[in-house]
Amino acid sequence: MHTPPFPLLAGREATLPSTFPVAEAFTHHRVPLAVTSAGSRRRKLWELDHRFHCPLVGVCFEVNALREVVARHFHCTADTSDFSIHTSAVSACQERSPLAEVLHKLLEKRFQLSIRRFAEAKTTEALRAHWREATHSGSDLPAALWSIWTHPACDKALTQEVYADIHMIQHQVGTGTRADLAQLKTLRHDNQKLREQLDATRRDADALRSEKAAETLALRQQLAELHAELAGKSAQEDALKRELQQLHQLRPALKELNALRERAQAAETKASELSRANILLRKELSAAQRQRPATCASAAAATNEPSPLTQGSDTAKLDGKCVLCVGGRTGAVDACRQVVETRGGRFLHHDGGVEENPHRIDAAVAAADLIICQAACISHSAYWRVKEQCKRTGKRCLFLKTTGISSLSRLLDTAGKTLEAPAGDEIAV
Questions:
Q1: Where is pLDDT greater, at 166 or 180?
Q2: Which residue among 8, 48, 56, 297 is buried most deeply as judged by most CB within 10 Å?
Q3: Confidence grade of residue 302 (pLDDT, cut at 50, 70, 90)
Q4: pTM assigned to the model
């Protein structure tokens, strides 16, 4: 509901006859000398015509604020009407009273910015332009009213014009109030319809909220099930990771097992070949025994050493043992074979990594019963490989410092006599 900013006129004007013209009242009413006198001093509140005090107090002071000021100088109770407060303040402004001085100071302090702006006007026409601008914009009319009526350039005609304007503005405010009441009735009707629509909307919102709450509960239950399933998947993933880690740790061992399996297969293949070769060698042995004198003589002549056959008949019997010779000269391989086979053994040879693959030493050691390492004609890696394999498999290993046939014969004779010695003992010649 619209509240009029300017109260209706009250006080002395209410005693005027209803048929009394306003313009004639302005003409015949006595105007104090301070209103028309020239000078640069601004007028005081009590120096204005008393009929201006009513609109000035009503426009420039809000009712509750005016009540607080009047209560300091007059006795008034809480049930004192707003009209009584207004008329008391207007009556006090007719002369220089304590209340008039207080009201004057409040007006000067409250509207000092507007007073400075109106002070820029030095003529009546300039002052009228400021007032027209204020009434046209409708903003801050109380400040404009106080600033123009107390201005020294405000003459009688401008004072009456301002009074007429503010009087009609108050009537317009009253008319606007009646229009506001009609509009208020329409707004109340519209408000009732809107309330009904709001109630219906609230009911729909409550139903929708209940539906959404049920959906939310179902989704939460589904989410809890998914969390449980995820926890199970996480546990399964952790178990698979641990298993994968164990497999990674076993990977080197698996490689070693695969290598050993390959070596075992190679050894089996080699054993099969050796078995077939053994049959052939036995056949060749008989023929070799018949040619033994000539072969031993030729071998001794080739190496400038006495023939092992001429060194005596006290030779060891190998009884079919497989003898592996690692290293040695290539040209003496056949003579070494003859020495071994003469004593009833089977001969195997590996050059110690000169031309043959050093990895084949492992299979050869596994297939042999006795290993002879010719240390003078073998690489360091092959030497240590033979020694390590003999120690791991428990095979007997004899080390030969020289490469002669006679040294090999003596080593075999010595090995034959101590063939039952514990594995790992080494005999060096």
A1: 166
A2: 56
A3: low
A4: 0.34
Question: Token digits for 358?
Answer: 């050093």
CA–CA–CA angle 103, 104, 106 (5° rounding): 65
Half-sphere exposure of 377 (CA within 13 A, CB side): 20
Give residue 38's pLDDT.
Answer: 43
Which tokens hold the place of 265?
Answer: 């297969």
- Cβ distance 56 to 149 under 8 Å? yes
* Alpha-carbon gap, residue 253 to 428, rounded angstroms: 36
Beta-bridge partners for 371? 324, 397
Three-state DSSP string of the chain: CCCCCCCCCCCHHHHCCCCCCHHHHHHHCCCCHHHHCCCCCCCCHHHCCHHHHHHHHHHHCCHHHHHHHHHCCCCCCCCCCHHHHHHHHHHHCCCCCHHHHHHHHHHHHHCHHHHHHHHCCCCHHHHHHHHHHHHHHCCCHHHHHHHHHCCCCCCHHHHHHHHHHHHHHHHHHHHHHHHHHHHHHHHHHHHHHHHHHHHHHHHHHHHHHHHHHHHHHHHHHHHHHHHHHHHHHHHHHHHHHHHHHHHHHHHHHHHHHHHHHHHHHHHHHHHHHHHHHHHHHHHHHHHHHHCHHHHHHHHHHHHCCCCHHHCCCCCCCCCCCEEEEECCCHHHHHHHHHHHHHCCCEEEEECCCCCCCCCHHHHHHHHCCEEEEEHHHCCHHHHHHHHHHHHHHCCEEEEECCCCHHHHHHHHHHHHHCCCCCCCCCCEC
